[in-house]
Prior knowledge:
The protein is an alpha+beta fold. The protein has a single domain (2-172), classed as 2-Layer Sandwich (Beta Polymerase, domain 2). It contains 7 helices and 5 strands. Strand 4 and strand 5 (158-170) form a beta hairpin.
Amino acid sequence: MVTADNIMSPDDIVGLLRENNLDKYVSYFAEQMLLYRAAITKVRTTLETLDDEFHVKNDYNPIHHIETRLKTPRSIFGKLQNRGYPVTMQSIHDNLTDIAGIRVICNYIDDAYRIADLLIAHDGITLLEKKDYIAKPKPSGYRSLHLIVDVSVYMSEGSVSVPAEIQIRTIAMDYWATLEHRLKYKNEGKVPPDLYGKMKTYSESLADMEEKMQELQRETENYK
Ligand code: 0O2
């Protein structure tokens, strides 16, 4: 079993490859992925419980839905290579914080911040970094709240800290990000400048509309 104390060093990995012991290397990779999967399960369960509690107490669900993904080996090694990091297991551990990815789609902007605050108050989830692209959107117009966290995963030999990336956004933010991603993908990463400008304007229009919807929701709450 792999724990925080016995993660293989780059030299160990090179040794294994030199011995051509691919089986051992593959099974080590599988053990690492198990930890990331466990982190996803823990965060997802925590979020679902919070949403459930909110529903029981307030007759309202702040979370619309949750998506999770484990980065594929191809994508992991591609990212290491693109960024000029060594392609070793140690390097994955040291340089990639988004192998375990959780996306939380909320109804309103207030919900996104509320969910983020509740999640990082959990004693098994430690905030490492927060990027607030809702308050300060990316130049592309991308809006989302990103948290990089350490998730404490309990294994048979003790607890292990596993990094995870949590993207929290509203339905409107997700709608925009999904379409923009597809446009980029279809154009092999190079979006024509006029399209880029339009997408940015549409992001601003969606943000305006969301503010209005949020205001309406607050008024409804007060009315109740
Ligand atoms: P994938 O396949 O979606 O996971 P880093 O933290 O170093 O990995 P960066 O860009 O500094 O990379 O982090 P950031 O800004 O927090 O972005 C991480 C993820 O947010 C990206 O993952 C995208 O999923 C999403 N994202 C960021 N900017 C945009 C954008 O302009 N449009 C859309 N549609 N999504 C965006 P990856 O690693 O790019 O890939």
